[in-house]
Amino acid sequence: xxxxxxxxxxxxxxxxxxxSCSNEKLDPVATSSAINMTAPTGGTYVLAGTTAGTTxxxxxxxxxxxxxxxxxxxxxxxxxxxxxxxxxxPSIVLATSNSDVEVNQKAVTQRELNNLLLSTGGAIGSxxxxxxxxxGIPSTQLASSTNGVMAVSNEVSITATPYDTFDEFDKxxxxxxxxxxxxxxxWDPSNSPRLFSxxxxxxxxxxxxxxxxxxxxxxxxxxxxxxxxxxxxxxNGFTNIAHSGNNINxxxxxxxxxxxxxxxxxxYSIGKRQxxxxxxxxxxxxxxxxxxxxxxxxxxxxxxxxxxxxALAADEFLIRLKDDWSVKMGTISGNxxxxxxxxxxxxxxxxxxxKVPTAGNYKxxxxxxxxxxxxxxxxxx
Length: 381
Known about the structure:
By secondary structure, this protein is mainly β. It has helices at residues 2-20, 110-119; strands at 37-39, 44-46, 55-62, 71-80, 91-98, 103-109, 128-138, 151-152, 156-161, 170-173, 194-197, 203-210, 219-220, 228-231, 241-243, 255-262, 267-273, 276-278, 290-291, 293-294, 306-312, 316-320, 328-331, 337-338, 345-349, 354-355, 360-367, 375-380. Strand 16 and strand 17 form a beta hairpin. The longest helix is centred in the N-terminal third of the chain and has 19 residues, at 2-20. The radius of gyration is 27 Å and the shape is globular. The protein starts with a helix and ends with a strand.
């Protein structure tokens, strides 16, 4: 009888231990406390690309408590003032902290807030009202978790004016006689393609689609002709530029051209490119590229980007820009990485292999309008 009684005690203790070890991955037994966002308390913010790296405000909040020890990932969410928050509202990660930390702080830059507000549908150059809040989620919680363990803060109303992200970087313009056939206006600097300087140091690069069998153009430092630069020689040498120089007339016909321009040393280079996707993930494998098409539809969300609808395998690929493999685009790290689905995946010239996360039909979208933000999107279709 003693043995039976002792066994029951041990069994009860074991069950108690199992229940007490429940966590956010296993079942929804955890409780959460509200977060108190103490700053900002509101305000009006006019954001600008020229000051993108400066702090727009420092947000402060108290910690979430879930009833168990866990690191917590805190994110700042935003929606338009007329919308309601959800767990999937646009957000940026602020910090990961231990749950016993009482107060957290994070300086938010104009760039971070601007990107967040644009994600809500905020209009460039238009002042609008938004709501922000902070959410806390256990860092180990799976994205597929159904228990909904999340702490939320009070909501704060702000007014802000987002800017065009292109304005963060110096730029020059490429007006020419090709532009009217290439979604712009002929010889109009204010309505022409731009080349950007990622380092804001007078060195520019970028791609321009020229739908003209005999393209002709110059560079301008702004939207006037007061500081235009053309080729220093006639016929063109395609190496040096000079103020009020000669029209630049490449001889490779219509297509996509890649430029580098050093405004400080008055030098430049130009080369024609082929924009294609290649790799084991594509129908043609590593043997032949599948070429993307420049989107000329102003109503398209991918206007002036390169796109193609394609069945992709869960395998590796690259963007290849020359068939001799001398120029390609891939991961920023240079290592093989699995891309994200739907959102912008930042890439660079001569980067590493990318991998499709899940086999399926995709719209491949390559955005190379801004050399400071070359990016790829895989949009499920």
